[in-house]
Amino acid sequence: MYKLDLEKVIKKIKSEKAKKVLLHLPNGLKPKAKDITDELRSKTSAEVFIWSGSCFGACDIPIEAQNIGIDLIIHFGHTNWRN
Hints:
By secondary structure, the protein is of the alpha/beta class. It has a single domain (12-75), classed as Diphthamide synthesis DPH1/DPH2 domain 1 (Rossmann fold, 3-Layer(aba) Sandwich), CATH 3.40.50.11840. It has 2 helices and 3 strands, in the order αβαββ.
């Protein structure tokens, strides 16, 4: 079972005024991508995209995201990172 702090993500999207948000998920969370996306879309005005490529950790950032004007990448990983 995964415990995701979507309220924190929603606050970040709103504080950044992000219009295009990319979800970057490890393979274990990809089956939950639609549920996560639906929640974020219902509580923000952001357009949310799902990265379907690889996700081998926080260092594996999809640089191609800049080509479609992504404002914010939300990376869910296996380890808690602090801001």
